[in-house]
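Hey all, quick one. A colleague (J.T.) asked me to put the calcium ion job into the tracker so the inputs and the structure tokens live in one place instead of scattered across chat threads. No bug as far as I know, just bookkeeping. Sequence used:
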Amino acid sequence: MNYILRIILLSLFFAYFGCKTHQSHLNKIATKDFVFIEVENTQSNLNKWQIVKKGNLNYVKGASKETYLEFMGNKAITGKPNSPLEYKFTSPKTGNFKLMLMTSKRLEGVKSDWCNDAFVRLSGDYESASKLNTEDLQKDIKILQDGNDEVPELEWHWASTAEKDRHVYNEFIYKLKEGETYTLTLSGRSKRFSVDYIVLYDTDAFETKEAKKQFKIKK
Ligand SMILES: [Ca+2]
Ligand SMILES: [Ca+2]
């Protein structure tokens, strides 16, 4: 079989089964109101990210698809953007979409505000819908767990807090256009930070609290 055809068939296969499992968790939510991406579903070279599955040592239970990526580069405290992972998606509608990552930290005895962040950037035709500038959102910005050091380790929690300037907290909200394709890049920052899946949701369809509840996979 021709290589391109094989890629297309494989993509269709994963798209079909990907949708099936999403529906079981998120079947009550209109599909145009959000974008859901398993972090392990990337075409990028993982470099310092490691695949963790159920049964592996250090597996944090309750992960979507029982699979996630743990960043093992840099230091537990911090580091420069490392091992970028790319995710392409098409916006299901025109609207303001907020980014959240389902994440966990593994401290191994270090301070509780370590191992809790990464970097994200978005490229494509959009404008910022938060206090951050559009140009800022196109560059790597630190994303950390909401609640910072108060978040318990070895459990799944949302990371949606942007910190471009030290101790100035913001959100990642993008004004997206229907049918446009965007590339989200997730890079490692602190070691032993894990990401399970990515959600972008329409802020007109959900309040923050409701979105955090709705998109948390229950196991
Ligand atoms: Ca930190
Ligand atoms: Ca996952």
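Adding what we noticed when we looked at it: Helices lie at 3-26, 134-137, 208-214. Confidence is low (pLDDT under 50) at residues 16-23.
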